[in-house]
Write a structure and sequence with these properties.
The complex is a heterodimer of chains A (107) and B (112).
Chain A lengths: L3 E4 L2 E4 L5 E7 L7 E6 L6 E5 L3 E2 L7 E6 L2 E6 L9 E6 L6 E2 L3 E5 L1
Parallel strand pairs in A: 2-11
Antiparallel strand pairs in A: 1-3, 3-8, 4-5, 4-9, 5-6, 7-8, 9-10, 9-11
Chain B lengths: L2 E4 L3 E3 L5 E8 L8 E6 L5 E7 L6 E3 L7 E6 L4 E6 L8 E6 L8 E5 L2
The chains are: A mainly beta (107), B mainly beta (112).
């Protein structure tokens, strides 16, 4: 199985700042990486798939980059609604596997 | 819009089975595979498997092959997952998901 190592596990930032979250795969997954957002009381939201393709409805302040084994989610100019938990997930092969999550909190 | 509505929380005894549902709406049910994902308390997500509602074909994570059974009822656009021989390790939230939509989750608590 492909192991996904996500970091940091916790991140504190202020609205308006930019943050980056890293996700590393134990072997090449080409560009088949998705990012999800988890918020209390809401269903999980797909933000980005195939490494850098924004899902319809995802604000442009979100961006994804990377290929092979190293990927990054960047959120520019944080809005209050962005404080949540973020997961990466590889969709290159089965079984699908997820990172351990990053909790983004307001500083 | 696409909606996946899952069944309510369940409290079950060790050794029992639980069957949960995921009712789809807002799209053609047979056009998209349905995935099932486990989230243990305070932990990350584990992919259990998927079912193709059109063919009934399934693909399971080896870890859950003897534990989970995925089925669908096309007439009601509903996917089901049955989890058997439950232990405390199976206490978790279980999600169904399509490619870009998730259900709200079903909390399963295993306790005597």
């Amino acid at each position: 199985d492909v192991q996904m190592t996500q970091s940091p596990s916790y991140l504190a930032a202020s609205p308006g700042e930019s943050v980056s979250i890293s996700c590393k795969a134990s072997k090449s997954i080409n560009t088949y990486l998705a990012w999800y957002q988890e918020k209390p009381g809401k269903t999980n939201k797909l933000l980005i798939y195939s490494g850098s393709t924004l899902q319809s409805g995802t604000p442009s302040r979100f961006s994804g980059s990377g290929s092979g084994t190293d990927f990054t989610l960047t959120i520019r100019s944080l809005e209050p609604e962005d404080f949540a938990v973020y997961y990466c997930q590889q969709h290159n092969e089965y079984p699908l596997t997820f990172g351990s999550g990053t909790k983004l909190e307001i500083k | 819009q696409v909606k996946l509505l899952q069944s309510g929380a369940a409290l079950v005894k060790p050794g029992d089975s639980v069957k949960m549902s995921c009712k789809a709406s807002g799209y053609t049910f047979t056009d998209y595979i349905i995935h099932w994902v486990k989230q243990s308390h305070g932990k990350s997500l584990e992919w259990i498997g998927y079912i193709n509602p059109y063919s009934g074909g399934t693909n399971y994570n080896e870890k859950f092959k003897s534990k989970a059974t995925l089925t669908v009822d096309k007439s009601s656009s509903t996917a089901y997952m049955e989890f058997s021989r439950l232990t405390s390790e199976d206490s978790a939230i279980y999600y169904c998901a399509r490619d870009n939509s998730w259900g709200q989750g079903t909390l399963v608590t295993v306790s005597s």
